Amino acid sequence: MTETSTGPAPSVTVLGTGIMGAAMARNLARAGLPVTAWNRSREKAEPLAADGVRIADTPADAVRTADVVLTMLRDGPAALEAMRAAAPALRPGTVWAQSGTVGLEGAGSLAAFAREHGLTLVDAPVLGSKQPAEEGKLTVLACGPKEAREVLEPVFAAVGSRTTWLGDDAASGTATRLKLVINSWVLAVTHGTAEALALAEGLGVDPAGFLDAVAGGPLDMGYLRAKAGLILSGDLTPSFTTATAEKDARLIVAAGEQAGVRMDVAAAGAERFRRAAEQGHAQEDMAASYYASFDAV
């Protein structure tokens, strides 16, 4: 490890520099940690060089000197593929913070890989989207061995404003399970907002009247305001894409099935996201669920 004014600074590799991963890598570098980044599409990672991040051509090159590997990839198979490619250069004992939303099956596969390669796995999905990621204000839901916590402290402090430790056994999937529960609520609120505004449109109701009627009461909430603002402005610059939201919805449904719980709203929501994606909104904000209420033009 290199040294900073506050002590040892772990060398961190970020695999995956999409909306979230890029922001996390940038904040890690700004916090004074040595950072290397890799992305399947190198052009998405290259702007990070301006922040002092080393850009690697391959996962193996990226992890060669890493004390901590942080994965922020689309799903479990993508994370596993990247780590398999990195395997020849991984050192036993390397701390692996798996921060993507990968579902129960994905979490199990990644835990098996960590055991096979002698890695210290921490299940560490994050709460928040683009703006909190850029501001370093994510919430980290972490589950992993106590010996990894000191190494990860400056990493999690750089990317988030709060870390909640949920146990010592990353393979239990405790943090991933909580993340799926939270995301089920986030997606339900997104669809609720989208459908209410779509119904207002269909019935000729001024959406401002709806928002004014619930203002300040128990039916009001910040997330309603945020998603309604995107829909009404027509600016669907993504903080969380429709395609990713569909993926998460299907992971939630699968987790429910495994637990014997019917997730009817999540299943219907996944279909709304699918329809919106087919209409051309896959890479727009998931508030594009609104358009799934109408026939494609």
Architecture overview:
By secondary structure, this protein is α/β, with parallel strands linked by helices. It has two domains: 2-172, Rossmann fold; 177-293, N-(1-d-carboxylethyl)-l-norvaline Dehydrogenase, domain 2 (Orthogonal Bundle). It is 51% helix and 14% strand. The chain contains twelve helices and eleven strands. The strands form three sheets. A six-stranded parallel sheet has the order 5-4-3-6-7-8, sandwiched between helices. It has a three-stranded mixed sheet with strand order 9-10-11. The termini are far apart.
Q: Give the spatial strand order of the biggest sheet.
A: 5-4-3-6-7-8
* Residue share in helix: 40-55%
What structural category characterises the helix and strand content?
Answer: alpha/beta
Mean pLDDT: 96
CATH architecture title of the largest domain: 3-Layer(aba) Sandwich
The ordered H/E elements are EEEHEHEHEHEHEEHEHEHHHHH
Number of domains: 2
CATH homolog superfamily of the largest domain? NAD(P)-binding Rossmann-like Domain
Query: Unreliable runs, pLDDT <50, ≥5 residues?
Result: 1-6
| Overall geometric form | globular
Strand content: 5-15%
Number of contiguous helices: 12
Layout of secondary structure:
Elements: E1 2-4, E2 7-9, E3 12-15, H1 19-30, E4 35-38, H2 42-45, E5 54-55, H3 59-63, E6 68-71, H4 76-86, E7 95-98, H5 103-117, E8 120-123, E9 126-127, H6 130-135, E10 138-142, H7 149-159, E11 160-165, H8 174-203, H9 207-214, H10 222-233, H11 242-259, H12 264-281
Helix pairs in contact: 4-5, 8-10, 8-11, 8-12, 11-12
